[in-house]
Amino acid sequence: MAGRVDHPLTDERVREVLRQIKFPGFSRDIVSFGIVKSIGVTDRNDVTVALHVMTRDPEVPRQIQRDVETALKQFGGIGRVNIEMTAQQPPQQGQMPMAGAGAAPARPQIAGVKHIVAVGSGKGGVGKSTVAVNLACALASLGQKIGVMDADIYGPSVPKMMGSVQRPTITDEKLNPVENFGLKMMSMALLLDGNSPVIWRGPMIMKAIQQFSLAVNWGELDVLLVDLPPGTGDAQLSLAQTIALDGGVIVTTPQDVALEVARRGIAMFERVNVKILGIIENMSYYVCPHCGERDDIFSHGGGKQEAARLEVPFLGEIPLFTEIRICGDKGLPIVVAEPKSEPSKAFLRCAETVSELLEKG
Ligand SMILES: Nc1ncnc2c1ncn2[C@@H]1O[C@H](COP(=O)(O)OP(=O)(O)OP(=O)(O)O)[C@@H](O)[C@H]1O
Ligand SMILES: [Mg+2]
């Protein structure tokens, strides 16, 4: 671009055009899905766009290519358009060999539960539980039947965030989940007495997780969301080996260091053949509760870049917003307490994308 300071066409303008193109069958655009790998514009306004799609449907890359060509031609003032399209099949769940274990064993489904999705991260305190609970409420507000399973047996926080701490009843030797805001929920915290320390080791964790997933009367659910403990240890592996997870959602904050742990979280899901549904960037930007002004305090956007780099969908950004914490502490998730607020809308957008992805398989 040397010597052409007044060049009218920039990568950014091309990106804006691409933002108008929806991923086939989805309400989300191809840029936020992380499909666009690079954009190049020459002095003659020739445009090269590199796209990479993960799909099992060969029509999807063809459709995207056609839509990109049409959109760029309609924009006007663009010379030659060169689209470099690559497509890759995502690994099919349960078909890839497990590391060192031959073919993956078929894992039992939970009867009546359509989709099981784990929410995890390689790191503590990034807002996994907050995201799991609010995402659950947002999915429920879309009319879906939702359950939340708190698999964090060392630091269970879901019952407090959902304001439900009563003991579960038992029917036919199975635990009945407690219900609040139209959601079903089960947590080890509901079975323990106040301050009893949880000092279980690996095999006991395995047992507890198995009980949770298989010995709870979940009934009919569209989605069971599982809030994982921080890290990539026993609980995550037990869960992935106990039930057939349909996908993993990775929660990250925008800083590089948090992204590094998100990468570890992704590697953990991949090791046990769980498909990555996508990345949610939490505490993405700050919204001042007084003036509504936005501030990118943690260099916002890292989650989206990371999703693009790792070729997984980007599910959305949740702002850092004091009310989210206050609502969590009160046991009334913000999506229920203030459904019209900016963070609630952000959770709803994530929920829409998650349910679209689950529908498409
Ligand atoms: N977007 C947000 N805006 C404001 N506060 C938030 C946001 N997300 C999470 N928090 C607050 O940050 C704290 C940690 O969140 P949370 O417990 O959900 O994290 P976690 O990743 O589940 O932690 P752990 O690793 O301990 O399980 C909580 O006090 C929560 O209310
Ligand atoms: Mg948590």
Write up what this structure looks like.
The protein has helices at residues 11-18, 59-75, 128-141, 158-162, 202-214, 234-242, 256-271, 302-310, 322-330, 334-337, 342-360, and strands at 36-41, 47-54, 81-88, 113-120, 146-150, 170-171, 174-175, 178-180, 183-187, 221-227, 247-252, 276-281, 286-287, 294-295, 314-317. The protein has 361 residues and is of the alpha/beta class. Strand 11 (247-252), helix 7 (256-271) and strand 12 form a beta-alpha-beta unit. The radius of gyration is 22 Å and the shape is globular. The site of adenosine-5'-triphosphate has 19 residues, from helix 3 and helix 9. Adenosine-5'-triphosphate binds next to helix 3 and helix 9.
Short summary:
The chain is of the alpha/beta class.
Ligand types: adenosine-5'-triphosphate, magnesium ion
Uncertain runs are 1-6, 91-105
Sheet/helix structural class: alpha/beta
Strand residue content: 15-25%
Helical residue percent band: 25-40%
Strand order of the largest sheet: 8-9-5-10-4-11-12-15
